[in-house]
Amino acid sequence: MAATANFDPQSVLKLDGYLEPFIPAIAHRHERFQKWKDIIDQYEGGYEKFARGFEMMGFNVKESGEVIYREWAPNATEAHLIGDFNQWNRLSHPLKKNTFGVWELTIPPKAPGVCAIPHDSKVKISMITPSGARIERIPAWIQRVTQDLTFSPAYEGRFWNPSTSERYQFKNPRPPQPRAIRIYEAHVGISTSEHRVGTYKEFTKDTLPRIHALGYNTIQLMAIMEHPYYASFGYQVTSFFAASSRYGTPEELRELVDAAHGMGITVLLDVVHSHACKNVLDGLNAFDGTDHQYFHEGSKGRHELWDSRLFNYGSHEVLRFLLSNLRFYMEEYKFDGFRFDGVTSMMYVHHGIGTGFSGGYPEYFGPGADEEAIAYLMLANDAMHALYPSVITIAEDVSGMPLLCIPVSQGGIGFDYRLSMAIPDMWIKLLKHKTDDEWDMGNIVHTLTDRRYGEKSVAYAESHDQALVGDKTLAFWLMDKEMYTHMSDLTPMTPIIARGLSLHKMIRLLVHSLGGEGYLNFEGNEFGHPEWLDFPREGNNNSFQHARRQWNIVDDQLLRYRYLNNFDAAINHLEEEHKWLSAPQAYVSLKHGGDKMIAYERSGLLFVFNFHPTKSFTDYRIGVDEAGEYHIILTSDEKKFGGFENVSCGGKFATTPMEWNGRKNWLQIYIPSRTCVVLGK
């Protein structure tokens, strides 16, 4: 076996000296990762071959028309391929099993270059277990499954093999990795205004141009991996290699990604490797009749809150399946990276259930850490970054695990970014429990700047979970029922709407410019979408009323939603120009509790916020390090953003060379109540 490559502890201690007592634990998990990497290098031809499992497993068609089908099912004693192509004959197409529990069948072509299995026809694998029971499953590596709810909620496997002329041909190269990511998190199904499931085609034609115009450079697509229950938001996956058929065909998804690339937009997949749907008939659960093929057996293999199955990350074939799954979406659909869902659940044996993370380091490196799962995440990040240097990986972690976003070679877990999950929680608590004059500027700034040194964060003001029925978006918390009655310019601007519009804009600019090295917005929240998300289900008579995005209201030139949309676009375009997300963390010179003022400098710009509900300030003194003449380049008070035009762009302010708030110079500005301004030189 190859010699184990140890990381240098100094690389960790340079980032955080407090990690010194935990160097043995960090070294131990790195050794576990390295052992797997050595095995993959020695026996599997490295990541290059190992992560191409989809070219060996499942269905692979040769140019001659010959089909080779392989399936890992170690418990089965017999296996046959059945389907439309052989009239579901359970004896005509037997598979042979090798010593590793992999079954194989070669089906000769019907004629030269003609497959014996018709394109898009139904297929299954029929197996006999040691007890003599017959079980039938959808192939685990299947690339297309469809659901006919009038017949059954269970999916049916399909043999996807379009002709060359029908196969989508990519036209655009991948865009270069963004300097900093501005993410638009989107769900294809809800991206229509109509009362139905939206399609890949519609998203490409109608939604992509909106995202591009708003200035987002990255899209994060949710609910793509096939899931039987639409209302699960895509987080109960049954067929990992099948892109959801409810939105269209695999070729139409390829077209969507390619069109985004043509606009210079990076496309990330929301990948669910933290757990799997417990369905047996159309999922991986009990695939070969055992409790423990892809998953841990017994309670260790079950997530009690999510009612789902948990992968055995210590299994060679499970690692092949999951690493190949990532590469499949990079190769076959040209995705540019991944947002890994449920990383907290993976990294701890308690899955975060009933655990509040205080930030104490023993919580991360003690017996609570799941080293098998952490080693998988290290392998996944290491493999994807080795194979695709421009790949982007993001971790959804609420625990604050140190070294999560440090390269594996330096003792880290290898993600590029983590989601700053404390930020949306903070805003909800403020809006729910505090009056405006109780807002603590120091606590707001602390939450926005409290991130690990050397690790990049994606900040967001509100999460997609808040858009779901039973919760409220920021716009709803701020304006509630008045959104239905007073969002027209033909109605008077009520105090509630004026406050709501102002704070919505201020919160977004503050989070965008202070909270991280990336920014994320969930679809519709940029314009304060007025209604929650509620997918069709029994409890709402399977209604699509709330499972859509009402683009008509932001397009209506009489409604005030467009002001929020305009401001969102202005922030993104200003960031593109001044690049604050990729600049060092901001220097905060002012967080005044009584005045409700926040001021900071980042990337050569001066950001000033007045959160006071009633007080406007004339000649408010703000410290700034760099001397010179500053002018306002963005203000939330402009008319096109629903402001009152008390402050206008272009106003000039000269600095005075005298120390103020720890800065070398100061300037004085007029800053009205509930207004923010950005000044540049």
From TrEMBL:
Catalytic activity: Transfers a segment of a (1->4)-alpha-D-glucan chain to a primary hydroxy group in a similar glucan chain
UniProt keyword Transferase, yes or no: yes
Example of a GO MF term: hydrolase activity, hydrolyzing O-glycosyl compounds
Annotated active site: 341 (nucleophile), 396 (proton donor)
Entry keyword annotation includes Glycosyltransferase: yes
Gene3D superfamilies xrefs: Glycosidases, Golgi alpha-mannosidase II, Immunoglobulins
CDD domains: AmyAc_bac_euk_BE, E_set_GBE_euk_N
Enzyme Commission numbers on file: 2.4.1.18
Enzyme's top EC category: transferase
Pfam families given in the database record: Alpha-amylase, Alpha-amylase_C, CBM_48
Keywords: Glycogen biosynthesis, Glycosyltransferase, Hydrolase, Transferase
Domain Glycosyl hydrolase family 13 catalytic: 198-568
GO cellular component, one term: cytoplasm
GO biological process, one term: glycogen biosynthetic process
UniProt pathway annotation: Glycan biosynthesis; glycogen biosynthesis
Superkingdom of origin: Eukaryota
Function: Glycogen-branching enzyme participates in the glycogen biosynthetic process along with glycogenin and glycogen synthase. Generates alpha-1,6-glucosidic branches from alpha-1,4-linked glucose chains, to increase solubility of the glycogen polymer.
Family: Belongs to the glycosyl hydrolase 13 family. GlgB subfamily.
Protein name as catalogued: 1,4-alpha-glucan-branching enzyme
Native source organism of the sequence: Suillus luteus UH-Slu-Lm8-n1
